[in-house]
Amino acid sequence: MILNKKQKHLQIAFNRSLYEVDDMILRLPASERIIVEAGTPFIKQNGERGIRSLVNNWSRRIGAGAYVVADMKCMDRGSTEVSIAKSAGASAVTCLGLAPTETINDFIADCTKYNIDSMVDMLNVKFPFEVLAKLKKQPDIVVLHRGADETLAEIPFHEINRIKGAYNSVISVAGGESPTDIRRAFFNGADIAVVWRSFNENPDQVEALAEEFLLSIKAYAKSIKN
Amino acid sequence: MPNQNRGQFDFKKLPKYIWVIPALMCIINPSFIFIFFVVFLSFIKRKKDFMSLLNKTSSVSPSLNLSLPETAFMRVASPVPSTLRTTNNFVNALSGLSTLFVAPSVNRQLKKNKKYLQVALNGSLNESLNVLRGLPTSEKIIIEAGTPLIKSEGIGVIRRLQYAMPGSYIVADMKTADLGEQEVAMCAQAGASAVVCLGVAPIEVIGGFIAACEKYNVEAMLDMMNVPSAILVLKKLKKMPRVVILHRGVDETESNKEKQIPFYEIKQVKGTSNCLVSVAGGDTAREVQSAIFNDADIVVVWKDFYTSNTTTDKIVTGFLKEIR
């Protein structure tokens, strides 16, 4: 697994056009706690080229520790999509928890083969635990997700400790948008919190927003004070 | 506007002695000579593209690159000199003029009571373009830009397919699970005729997706992969999608021999809604036959079209025979 398990991370998803995203990434604070994500619409818009430019820019910004997630939302043909992400230079790929079990198995096997982190996205999955129990091998990271278009659903914070108790996976929480939500996620035991909307809406204030969100990670805030 | 470039000039539809009409007009009124000369110039430029379609051996013709129209949404990979671009725009405008004489062959919407063969392209871009060159012209053929193709090349690939097969009905297999409107807008901009959403996605997403499809004037397809019962999903929706795809995934097909394509659901879906039904996951001629026998409107094939070969034409005609 490439990700540093002991640290808490902030994952920022980018969904604007390639030019804007290139610019936004070069202005992010250079912290290893930030994970850059190529959002699904972004990948579909720009293809492999888009991911590669994200990887290049982010590693130019922070050096060797650059961690870029390709949010492929793989539903079928797991191996093909992993190889696309690998050739683009991503460090992690996502697969939908809704996908057939065979696909997720293939996907995780290929991820270990290519040495990329596997993420299983539990968007619209009622019982993530059941999906995980069917798998041959556990994914590196489990993403608990409330979709951007779902307004009524709640973020399943209660699942975090349940999954952590049974498996050794890292838990990521997506769907919260305010710093309070992020703090709640970390308080409930999540390792990664995903944000995107505020960055998508205010591309000019990337630095300030990222700082604000990073401060909700306690260890980061402490290191800043010292 | 998404359908600006749809009125492509289709040479295959022209009657053989069409030139007699302008010749007669020129004899009656010599001032027509100038007008037809200009149209003739555009004819020559388009003919080059047309010839490149016929020429199945060449990989990517240079004219394909030149004639990609610029949109705000996409960036063309190879920079084209601006002079070429402007002449090309001029020629495009002229070919638009020529549609006054011949009705455009635009296949915008699927018709009920017709059977279609959907060819899914999942290889690299060059392979896909080669496959397209091998296809016979038929209104029954739908082209699908597969998910791996879109994810590796970007949505601009649809414009390229559109240009390699002018006037064809192109499906963007986006497999949308979230952010429906953004993805539909993207596809409409790129010139797709239909977009695919996942049936397993949250109901709000599917609803938003179908509304967005109506807004952007593309057809909505709902992919029922890994959905236990298609009608249960359809019942929860306010508006029906145009097409329901009953789908057995590739990975499922390969590693799970027991899984069957749910042919029995075709009648269920058709009984409860007004949708067309498409069947994906079967690849042999036998499975195509049984899908059509079970009243499917569209059959999706991909395995034989993964890479192009000389037999593509034969296979398609074989399949078309199956669906009549």
Note down, in words, how this protein is organized.
The complex is a heterodimer of chains A (about 230) and B (about 325). With about 230 residues, chain A is of the alpha/beta class. Chain A has helices spanning about 20-25, 40-60, 80-90, 100-115, 130-135, 160-165, 180-185, 195-200, 205-215, 220-225, and strands at about 10-15, 35-40, 70-75, 90-95, 115-120, 140-145, 170-175, 190-195. Chain A has ten helices and eight strands. In chain A, strands 1-2-3-4-5-6-7-8 form an eight-stranded parallel barrel, surrounded by six helices. In chain A, helix 1 (about 20-25) runs parallel beside helix 2 (about 40-60), helix 2 (about 40-60) packs parallel to helix 3 (about 80-90) and helix 3 (about 80-90) runs parallel beside helix 4. The longest helix of chain A has 23 residues, at about 40-60. An eight-stranded parallel beta barrel of chain B has the order 1-2-3-4-5-6-7-8, surrounded by seven helices. In chain B, helix 2 crosses helix 4 and helix 5 packs parallel to helix 7. The longest helix of chain B is centred in the first third of the chain and has 23 residues, at about 30-55. Chain B is an alpha/beta fold. Classes of the chains: A alpha/beta (about 230), B alpha/beta (about 325). The interface of A and B includes residues 72, 96 and 100 of A.
